[in-house]
User: Fold this.
Amino acid sequence: MKFVLKWLLNGVIAVTLLMYYSNASFIGAASTATILTIVAYMLGDRIILRFTNNFIATVSDIILAYLVLWVAASTMNWTISPGELLIVSLITGIAEFFIHRYVFHAKLSVQQA
Assistant:
């Protein structure tokens, strides 16, 4: 369920902003958002968040989002500037912060039960 929430939220943010800021197609933006979600979930949520805190996991997700989006933009020849990539990454990071809070809250609720 947490992965689906993350995928939907990241998808809405990334697809919308990538299509707004660049010449990205819906399929290209959706594919990139899906790849970003999978990598961020495996690396950010399952490893970094587990061993650190929300702040560090959020910063790592912002950096990861920037790198994944930059590679995708370069590969697919999107017309998006580094500043626009940063905006998409920061907005994605803000969403990740709240997803992490949800994950922590759900984990604490299960442990206390």
User: Anything to note?
Assistant: The mean pLDDT is 90.
